[in-house]
Amino acid sequence: MCSLCGILAGKGHWTESAANPEVFDGRDERHTVARERQQRTRILNVVLAHYGLSVSDWAASRYVLRSRTGRSALVANLNELWAEAERLLGRPCDPLDPSLLSELSRAEAAAPRAHVGP
Asked: Per residue in 79-113, pLDDT tens?
């Protein structure tokens, strides 16, 4: 199979609700695959910025991972994304890195809160 056919015929990853609709039935909010991918991409970019990387959605089936130096890679899912991030950087991306956790905590504290209630 050629690469393009593999992309078009790709199977959903276990982390995506579209691949497991039975697990995500009963949600209160309107849910779409596009909304899920947009939210995932926003969250990934917050974390990846710590490492000098960014990610964008490509054709709603892959992610484009980019470094500040212009290197890029096309990845299918989160497992591939983290492995490729480490390859691009030449070092591990540790989700428990104290400086990353501190940075994420500061960002959360600075983020405006949505008003809930009357």
From this structure: 899 999 999 999 999 988 999 999 999 988 887 77
The beta strands (E) that lie in 30-70 are given as 53-58, 62-67
pLDDT tens-digit map of 37-81: 898 999 999 999 999 999 999 988 899 999 999 999 999 998 899
Tell me the domain boundaries of the chain.
30-106
- From CA 62, how far away is CA 30, in angstroms rounded? 23
Which residues are within 8 A (CB) of 75 and not within 5 positions of it... i.e. 6 or more apart? 62, 63, 64, 65, 81, 84
The helix/strand/coil state of 105 is helix
